[in-house]
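Q: I'm writing up a methods section and want to include an example of the input and output format. Could you take the sequence below and give the corresponding predicted structure tokens, formatted cleanly so I can copy it straight into the document?
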Amino acid sequence: MNKALQTVFEYHETTKHAQQRYARSLGYMDWATQPDPFRKYNGASSIELPIAMQNATPPYHLLDSDLPPAPLLKESLSQLLQFSMGIAAHKESGGSTWAVRCNASSGNLHPTETYLVLPPMMESTQSTVRHYAPKNHELELHCNFNTSLWDSLPKDSFLIGFSSITWREVWKYGERAFRYTQLDAGHAWQSLEVSAKMLGWKLTRLDAISDSDINTLFGIKQKDRFFEDENADMIFVASPEYVDSTISLDTLLEELPLTYDGIANRLSPTMQHWDIIPQIEDATTQMQIAQKNVTRIKPERQATKESKQIVLNRRSIHMMHKEHSNISKEHFHSILSSVAGLYIIHI
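A: Here is the clean output for your methods example:
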């Protein structure tokens, strides 16, 4: 067994809760160091996106149908981001107010950040790397550059991907934090899938791109722009059709400027340090696990509300009440059929 894989197994065993003990954490909430849930790049110019609340969306049960793709415009891009990584509502209790988002997050801590590589659009004559800032629903500009990448992809294609700031989870969960960043990355992925389907767009995860290259593309390797560590999760081509998941971004990476605009805001005045966290991050950065060739089973679904209504009303399970959180037997069976034998794996 190689060293990286051994580290993964050791982390899994070390950070499991047991009958006689919990996994290690600080043991209390250090409110003075609570991380800011919103990343902002100071000094970067930004574009405010139009709110998509009035946009009509397909019924949720039709999202696995072959819906016609929307054109790539500021308005469609805004809808994609708002109904996946955007703010769904604000909650208030005991004098405190906080935001909840369309993508679920453990403890509502939101370690996942979103970056895009866009073709010339939104008054830019060049391609751009941008960061999505959900607090004000805007795109922050990191750099402009020229690339031939778009010539090899279908019209209206772009790149979108995720990174994680593990500190946001470390603050609450200590050594188990890496588990939650991975859980949240999965939530973000599927939220993006749902939102893309509303627009008739397809997501292709690029499995041949290393974490190091994604970090270069997002500007995360420029360490003088960051206080807290941030690490690549995954990257996709969003397009009207699926593309080859093994495409190379080598030429694109060579065309990027060396330094991006904007300095990442400092999320906390100080941080707790857990040696096990950088160890598991380093180990998993070295591992490349390709997505299996699968076909999704399409279960028969009952008629539903508009997609945006479903997405915007997503809440944590602790908000369920038996008086008004019930579903029919048919809907329950539809849920089961969606996850039981969800994929046919092609060997």
